[in-house]
Specification:
By secondary structure, the chain is mainly α. It is built from 15 helices and 2 strands. The protein has a single domain, classed as Farnesyl Diphosphate Synthase. Strand 1 and strand 2 form a beta hairpin. It binds geranylgeranyl diphosphate.
Length: 292
């Protein structure tokens, strides 16, 4: 795992420098718009999606410069979704990444605009990359689908719809997991494959879909067992808000067993790949045992 942590750190540093450069070139008016976008973007975060993009690129032999704008666009979309999710009209959270949420600092109207601004900037970043050729268009199309009304937005809509439902069933839970969380974890992995003409498309798609499921399972477990200091956000909210979670459906212990099995499934999907997939396999272990 020491190798994994070192490599993760290298990918993280590379992406953060790209993001810092992007932010320093972005000079928006009025100043509050500039500040609110950059506040959430530069708060930190694990950057799991950009790290997955760079690692998959390495596995497939794709140069980092070919994927960095896609990784950036996905992180912009992810950050917008967190800002909007934290709003009083949605999850009403005061803290994110250990700091006050965007609307707590800039007000609700400005937080809505910061999210909108990040989403628009993501799309313009993707469109610019499309000039490079057909594979870039297909990769951008895939990312938009993951983020859109048949992806993350559908998952969030179902999440809101089923809040406080008296009964819970696995098919609704799977719909929420797949769309709210898995799709944006699939985006970096699958788009790298698409940029390489669909190399190992099926293996990587199933790996990432399952990894997304594992990510949300651990998120549900951490909401019960995690701490504010590790997570940088409030814990115990799923229960108080009647969220549709694995812990509610299966109980804590079975959710942990399911996390173990899901982690093993992730790794199995990689076995069809000829190449060094050890980082992606270790990534599944990292997600399973994450504390934040
Ligand atoms: C508002 C359209 C819209 C969607 C919101 C992201 C999201 C959908 C909701 C946030 C709540 C949640 C539990 C989402 C599942 C995905 C998830 C665990 C997001 C947190 O992502 P991390 O852990 O965050 O990668 P950092 O801060 O590390 O970037």
């Amino acid at each position: 795992m020491a190798d994994f942590s070192k490599k993760y750190g290298e990918y993280l540093d590379e992406f953060n420098s790209y993001l810092n450069k992007f932010c320093s070139q972005l000079k928006l008016q009025p100043q509050i718009l500039d500040e609110s976008l950059k506040y959430s973007l530069l708060l930190g975060g694990k950057r799991v999606r950009p790290v997955l993009a760079l690692a998959t690129a390495d596995l497939l032999g794709l140069a980092h410069e070919e994927i960095l704008d896609f990784a950036l666009a996905i992180e912009l979309i992810h950050t917008y979704s967190l800002i909007h999710d934290d709003l009083p009209a949605m999850d009403n959270d005061d803290f994110r990444r250990g700091k006050p949420t965007n609307h707590k600092v800039f007000g609700e109207g400005n937080a809505v605009l910061a999210g909108d601004g990040l989403l628009n900037t993501a799309y313009s970043t993707l469109i610019k990359a499309c000039y490079k050729g057909k594979n870039y268009v297909s990769a951008a199309e895939f990312i938009c689908a993951c983020a859109g009304v048949e992806g993350m937005i559908a998952g969030q809509s179902a999440d809101l719809l089923h809040e406080n439902d008296i009964s819970v069933n696995e098919s609704v839970l799977n719909f929420i997991y797949e769309n709210k969380t898995s799709k944006l974890i699939m985006a970096p992995v699958v788009s790298a494959s698409i940029l390489c003409g669909g190399k190992y498309f099926s293996e990587l798609k199933w790996y990432a879909r399952t990894l997304g499921y594992l990510f949300q399972l651990t998120d549900d477990i951490l909401d019960v067992e995690g701490s504010f200091s590790d997570l940088g956000k409030s814990v115990g909210k799923d229960k108080t808000e009647g969220k549709y979670t694995a812990v509610r459906l299966f109980g804590l212990e079975e959710s942990k067993l399911r996390a173990d099995m899901t982690c093993e499934s992730c790794k199995k999907y990689l076995e069809g790949i000829k190449g060094d997939f050890s980082f992606l396999a270790d990534f599944a272990d990292y997600v399973k045992s994450r504390k934040k």
